[in-house]
Amino acid sequence: MIIDTNSRTASRTAAPPERPLPLKLCTAALLGAGLIGAASVGAQEAEPAARPVDTVVTVTGSRISARGYNQPTPTTTLTSEDIEKSAQPNIFTTISQLPALQGSTGSSVLTYSTSSGQQGLSAFSLRGLGAFRTLTLLDGQRVVPANVSGVTDISQFPQLLVKRVDVVTGGASASYGSDAIGGVVNFITDKKFTGFKANIEGGQTTYHDNRNVTFQAAWGRGFMDDKLHVVVSAEHGKEDGVPPHGFGMGPGPNGRTAFNAPAFQTRPLAQATDGKPQMYDIRNAQPYQYNRYGLITSGPLQGTAFGDGGVPFKFNYGSNGVPDGKGGVSGCISPYCVGGDLSGTSGNGTSLASALKRQNLYTRVSYALNENHEVYMTANVAEVDSQNTPNVGAPKNANLTIQCDNPFLPASIVADCAANNITSFQYGTGNANFPKNISVEPLRRQNRFVIGADGRFDAAGTSWSYNGYLQRGINNTDLHVNNLTLSPRYTAAIDAVRLPDGSIACRSLVARNAGCQPLNIIGNVPQSTGALAYVMPPNGARQVTRQTQDVASLNFSGEPLALWAGPLAIATGLEYRKEAYKVRADPYGNGVTPDSPNSTAYPADPVLNASTGGNWFAGNYRNGQGSYNVREAYLEVNLPLFKTDGLGEANLNVAGRGTSYSTAGNAKTWKIGSTWKTSVDGLRLRAVTSRDVRAPNLSELFAPVVTTNNVVNYRGTTLTVQQQVAGNTALRPEVARSSEVGIVLTQPRWAPGFSASFDYYTIKVDGVISTLGLQQEVDLCEAGNQELCAAMVLDSPVPTNNYVRLQQFNLASLKLRGFDIETSYRGSVAKLGLPGMFTLRALATHTIDNITDSGVPGTIPTQGAGVNLGSTPRWKLLATQGWSTDSASVTLTERWVSNGVYSNEYIECQTNCPAATTIHPTIDNNQMKGALYLDLGATYKISDNIMAYVKIDNLADRNAPTAPGPNVGYGLNPSLYDVLGRMYRAGLRFSL
User: In the UniProt record, does the keyword Transmembrane occur (predicted)?
Assistant: First the structure.
C-alpha cells in the first residue's frame, strides 16, 4: 500500500478490480456531495497497478522525503488527469476553482483598473489573504515575479508538462520561506517525460466572444542508455476576451443581460436621522454630473444636454428630478438619480475579460553522472500579452468650466448666457465622441534559467538525498496605456475662442504657441484630427519594468537514526536570494528628470507639469528602483513517537528557519505538527501550528516618490504641506501564527474506496503592511506613534519645508478562522450493469471569520467573511461526479458560492432605522445572492493515440448577481462569480 501523504484524503494506490458499489455507501456519498457540494480534486486517483511507483514519497507540505511519512499540514493535490478533465486553456483557471483559493487574480479581474499594472496577471491567493501572501513554486523552486508586488504569473509556466499541483493550505514559511502565510502552490513537472504528446483546443462563449485557441506540444527522449534525458515543450494560447459594450444601458456585450447599472446612493450622515436608510441599493443608476456628449451641471442653464451636431435638449433626469441650479437635483441623492436618460452610462464600458495571448518554450536537459547523481539545466522563455479597456470615454464629472463665448456653443446657449447674465457654466461629459477607448496593454516577458544537481550519497552508514540549484530569472514588463488624454492639454484645448480673423483657437496664448488645437466637446460632433493629436499623443502612458531574481539553494534530507518507532528523518538547507527591480516611465507621467528615457522626444510644453509629471488622465507611472537580499537556513525533523498495535503510530514534525533580510532585518519562523494514525481502521488525526512571515516586497519598500500639495489639520490649524507618497525601507516582516487541527478517514475496510477529512484552521497576522491617509498619519503621530512622526515635518520655520510622507506601515492585523471538508469515493458500477468506474469528489471551505483591524484609532475591526462584494464568501464549494471506462468518460461539476451580504458593518432596515454612523451605515438592502454553476465534460478515445474531448462551463448560462458599489462600475464581481456566461470548448489530445 502506497500512501500519497500530500492529500488530505490519501488513498491506496489501487482498489480491487470490479468491486461492487454498496448501495448505502453510494447514497451516503451522494448526500455528502449535496451537503458539501465541492470536489476533492486531490490525489485519490490510484496509479495503475502496472506502473512502477517510487518507494519514496516527496511531501510538498514539508522538505522531508521519507517512506511512509504522514504530513500534518493539509495538502490538496490535482493530478494531470484532473487538469485535463477541466479542459481550461489556462491551468490557472482549474486551480483557482479550489475553495481554499479565494481572491486570485485572472483575465477577468482588475479589468477596471488603469494604473495597477496587474491586468491580465494570473496569480493565486489562498484564504483571501492576497496573492503576495501565497507562495507559488515550480518543482519546489521559486520563480521570478511578474510584478513588483512579488507575485508570479501562472500563464508563464510550462503547463503541458505539469503532472500534478500540490496546494498546501497552511503556513509553510519554516519549510519554504517568506510569502507562505496563506500556503504554497507547487507545480510538479514530469522531468522524465518520454515520447510525444500534444493538445489542440478551441472554444467560445454562447455570445460568440472570448474565442480561444490553445496549441501545446511536448517531446522527451533519453539518450546514451538514458543517462542523458531531454524534455522540450512549446505552447501557444490566445483568448480574445470580452470587449466593452460602450455607453448606455441596453444589453451588455454581445447580448448579455447582467448589467443594470447598480450603485449605492448615500445620503450625508446629518440627513440620516429621519428613520430612513442612509444608503439605498439601486439599479439603473444615472450619474447626473455628465451625459454622453455633454451636460450643463450647474447655474441657470443646468439640465441642458447636447446631442448630435451639438443641438441642445432638456436632459431627462431620473427619479423625476429637477435641477436646483446649484449642481444638485431634487429627488436624487448625489451623485445618482434612478432611471431617466441612461444613454450616458459608462459602467458597461469595461472589458468583462482581458484579451490574453501566452507563449511558452521550456526545456530540461539532465545527465546522470552515475546511478546516484544527476545534473540538469532548465530554461523557460515565456511571453504573456494582454489587453483590456478599463472604461470608455474618460468621463469628466461636472469638473469642467465652459466660457459662454466659446465659439463651439450653439447660438441659443450663447443667448441664454446673456439673458441670465452669466459668463461661464460648469459642464460634464462622457467624451463619447472620442474615436477610441482607453486600452491597457501589458506585455510580460520571462527568461528563467536554472542549473542544478540532485542525488544521494552514503555518510556515517546513512543514505542521504540532496538537491541544489542556481536560478537566474528576469521578467520584463512593458505596459502601455493608449488613447489617454493629457489633462492639462485637454483643459487648454476645450477653452476655445474665436480670433479676429474668424478662426477658432485655444484661448491661452501660451498654450496656443505650444501647439494647442481647440477641441469641441459640445455634443456629438466630429473631432479635429489636430486637436485629438494634441490632447491624446499617440505614444500614451508607458512603464517599462525589469525585475530580476537570483537564487542559490542547497538542501539535504535523510534518516540518520533508527528509533523505537521508526527512523528519525531530517531535512536541512541554505538559501540565498536577491530581488531587484528598475522601472522607467514616460516623462508625461513621471516628469522630465535626468533619468527619463527619451526625454528629448518630449519637447518643452509650458501647459504641462514638466518636473512633477502626473499629466495623464490615468496611468501616471513613476521611475523607481530598489533591491534587497535574503539569507536563510532551516532544519526540519520528523520524530516517530510510537508504533504499537494498540495505539497505532504517531510522529512529531518540527521545523525552524532563520532568515536575514537586508532591509527588514532578521526573522524566525517555526512549525510544530503531529499526525496520529490511530488503531481505528483508516482513522488519522493531525495538528500543526506555525509562525510564518511575509517580508515587504519591492513595491512596498521602494515605491518612487510622488509629491503633491495638500492640507492637514495640525493642532487646530489648517496647515499646507507637501504630500509625499513613497516606499518605506523601514518596513518589518508581517508575522503570522497559524494553527490547524484535522481528522482524516482513509478507505476503511467498512467503506472501501471512500475517504474524508475535516480541518479546522485559524490564522492571525500582525504587523500587516497597510497605508494610512494623510490626516490619519498626523493624528497618530500626535497620539504618540514615533514611527509615524519620523515620516513628517510639521514645525519647520520655512512653511514650504513642511511635509508628510505617505508610506506603508506595519499597523494593521488580520484574523481568519474556518474549516475545510473533503470527501472522495471511487468504485465499480458493475452492480448497476455498467462498465467502468464511478468517482465522487467533494471539497468545501467555510470561512467563519476574516477580520481586518486597521490599527487606526476611531475605527473598528471589519468582518469580511460572507461579504460577496469581496473574495471570502461563507462557503465556497466544488463537487464532481464522474463515470469512466477505458474508452470514454463523463464528468459533471458543480461550483457553488453561498449567499452573502454587501458588508457586515451595514445595518439593514427600511423604516424606523437607527441613526446611521460612519462605522455602521444603514441600508435598505444588504443581501447579495450566491450562485450555482454546472459544468459538463466528456472524453472519447478515438484510438490508442488520440483522445477527443468536449466541455461546457456554466451549462445553464447563469448570470452573476449584480454587485453595486460607490461608483457605477460594471456591477459584477469576477473574484467570486462567473461573469462570462456559458462557455463551449472542444479539443484533441495526441500521444505517441
Answer: yes
